[in-house]
Amino acid sequence: VLGLNELAHAAGKNYFGSAVDNTLPEFTDPTYMSIYLNWDQFGQITPANAMKWMYIEPEPGVFNFTLGNQIADLASDYDYVLRGHNGVWYSELPSWVTSTDWNATGLAYAVQRHVNGIVSQYAGRVYAWDVVNEPLNDNGTYREDVFYDTLGASYISLALETARAADPNAKLYINDYNIEYVGTKSTAMQDLITQLQADDVPIDGVGMESHFIVGEVPTTLVENFQAYEALGLEFAITELDIRMELPATEESYEQQKQDYYTVVNACMQVSACVGVTVWDWTDKYSWIPSSFPGYGDACPWDADYQRKPAYDGIAIAF
Ligand code: XIL
Q1: Cα dihedral angle (194, 202, 145, 85), rounded to 10 degrees?
Q2: 159 and 109 in contact (C-beta within 8 Å)?
Q3: In its keyword annotation, does this UniProt entry include Electron transport (predicted)?
Q4: How many Å lie between the centroid of ligand 1 and the Cα of residue 120?
Q5: For helices 221-230 and 250-268, angle between their N-to-C axes, nearest 10 degrees
Q6: Rounded mean pLDDT of the chain?
Q7: Which of 32, 173, 191, 217 could hold 205 in an S-S bridge, CB 3.0 to 4.6 Å?
Q8: ipTM value of the model?
Q9: Nearest atom in ligand 1 to 85's CA
Q10: Do 131 and 174 form a contact (C-beta atoms < 8 A)?
């Protein structure tokens, strides 16, 4: 029997992979590593936290690549596709970014130094970078974070241009949630992409996070994905998990299997979809219970490392 990454490859996709969080004790958990380090199951890695600003540039201009290098070295050693995550995001910022009273020149310099620092560190090793993460509100307007408030939307092109110069071979992505389906936010993202293209700003892909709820997976994934393909971009499912209200039931596990099938099948139906990444593969380390109280069991493997019906949903879809 083929594993999920082998199935993805057989289906013409570039990878099936997972986020891993080495700020948690995953890498020292032998069961976690023995399952994760099988190329037949996983062919791609995204750091869930290690390359975020607060970890990788904790002081102005002072980079700490310890955790990021652990991820990048694993990718090299095991021949896993590496997705860099992320460049510029409103969250998990060090306090020197959020508490400085910036002027535009100062913050533009800090953004360039940051993006150049991380992208050049891993140049040649990263398949794709989420250069800009979650720039939009659900109503389609720009998120009013320190970057937008100080620089307007120009921080987006600045980050993308800086990333291109630092690693000309990395695919440059914008990554967001609630853009997976037809709606206001997805339309706004397509408008943003169209504007960047018109301005000759480098943009190669869009990340569809895909943090869904069991029984509530959107019905317009394929139609929406086709609209991105029509823009001439690739895209990826970058952070898939499908949470349920606890306690789980046999019915909710079956629905979750169907829901995983629906998402992976939507990727299968659109050739511009290059791969699928789950936002960790075992419930043992999932971010869901702490971020969405009352919800959990969002991953294809349970907290005891047993495969759930969701696993079969993915396997059947590829
Ligand atoms: C999450 C991590 O998994 C958590 O450990 C952290 O506390 C918060 O961030 N969208 C993203 C990811 O782009 O970076 C987020 O990851 C989940 C939502």
Answers
A1: 120
A2: no
A3: no
A4: 23
A5: 20
A6: 98
A7: 173
A8: 0.99
A9: 14
A10: yes
Which three-class secondary structure state does DSSP give residue 279? coil
Res. 30 pLDDT band, cuts 50 70 90: very high
The atom of ligand 1 lying closest to the CA of 175 is 13
Hey, how many other C-beta atoms are within 10 angstroms of the C-beta on 90?
16
User: 214 CA to middle of ligand 1, Å?
Assistant: 19
Contacts of 109 (CB under 8 A, 6+ apart): none
Q: Is 57 a catalytic residue?
A: no
Tell me what the mean pLDDT of segment 62-85 comes to: 98
Q: Of the listed 6, 57, 134, 180, which one is catalytic? A: 134
- For the chain, first and last CA: distance in Å? 13
CA pseudo-torsion sign 8, 10, 13, 19: positive
For residues 22, 71, 211, 89, the Cα torsion angle rounded to the nearest 10 degrees is 90
Structure tokens at 57: 């540039």
Cα(200) to centroid(ligand 1), Å: 30
Domains and CATH numbers, the chain: 4-317 (3.20.20.80)
Whole-angstrom Cα distance, residue 87 to residue 118? 8
Instruction: Determine the Cα–Cα distance for residues 256 and 308; give it in Å rounded to an integer.
Output: 9
* Active site annotation includes 134: yes
Backbone angles phi, psi at 245, to 5 degrees: -70, 135
What is the atom index within ligand 1 of the atom nearest the CA of 211? 18
